[in-house]
């Protein structure tokens, strides 16, 4: 019996498909992936506004770090629905120009202006903040900005 057990164990391992042992889709196995690069620090910002334009800034950590932006959500509603310009400044390659949908307050739902960047976009230089500028929502406006990224 002592000689049979090692043989049975070796047979089971040898005949088990490798995907069943190591594939992330195999039941009971979990693959861990990092959302941010190794040694980076998560960086988030949120701001609210009303009838006028406003901004939110992804801050710099230390003098030797680069800010990266991975995504932005701008939500806005006002008396009248409209579309206004929004920008993201401080990024490598220059200003990013976006269109921000403003929902009518009397309407149903609130459009989420969701912008995701894959890969994440770095600041134009080390120790440079990235600024998200939302357009003016208009009369009786309410708005918010949420942005996320990391420092490296």
Written description of the protein model:
The chain has one domain (34-151): Jelly Rolls. It is built from two helices and eight strands; from the N terminus they run ααββββββββ. The protein is mainly beta and 152 residues long. Residues 4-32 have low confidence and may be disordered. Strands 1, 2, 3, 4, 5, 6, 7 and 8 form an eight-stranded mixed beta sheet that branches.
Q: What is the number of beta strands?
A: 8
Unreliable spans: 4-32
Instruction: Please identify, by name, the CATH architecture.
Output: Sandwich
The averaged pLDDT comes out at 83
CATH class: Mainly Beta
End-to-end gap: 58 Å
Number of domains: 1
Shape category: elongated
Task: Assign the CATH topology.
Answer: Jelly Rolls
Largest sheet: 8 strands, mixed
Count of discrete alpha- or pi-helical segments spanning 4 or more residues = 2
Estimated share of beta-strand residues: over 45%
Helix content: 10-25%
Helix and strand composition category = mainly beta
Order of helices and strands: HHEEEEEEEE
Please tell me how large the radius of gyration is.
24 Å
């Amino acid at each position: 019996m002592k000689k049979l057990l090692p043989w049975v164990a070796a047979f089971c391992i040898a005949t088990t498909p490798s995907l069943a042992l190591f594939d992330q889709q195999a039941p009971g196995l979990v693959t861990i992936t990092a959302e941010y690069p190794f040694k980076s620090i998560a960086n988030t910002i949120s701001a609210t506004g009303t009838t006028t334009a406003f901004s939110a800034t992804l801050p710099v950590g230390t003098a030797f770090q680069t800010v990266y932006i991975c995504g932005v959500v701008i939500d806005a509603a006002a008396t009248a629905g409209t579309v206004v310009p929004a920008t993201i400044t401080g990024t490598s390659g220059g200003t990013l120009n976006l269109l921000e949908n403003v929902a009518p307050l009397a309407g149903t739902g609130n459009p989420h202006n969701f912008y995701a960047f894959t890969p994440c976009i770095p600041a134009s230089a080390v120790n440079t903040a990235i600024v998200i500028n939302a357009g003016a929502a208009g009369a009786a406006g309410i708005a918010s900005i949420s942005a996320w990224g990391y420092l490296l």
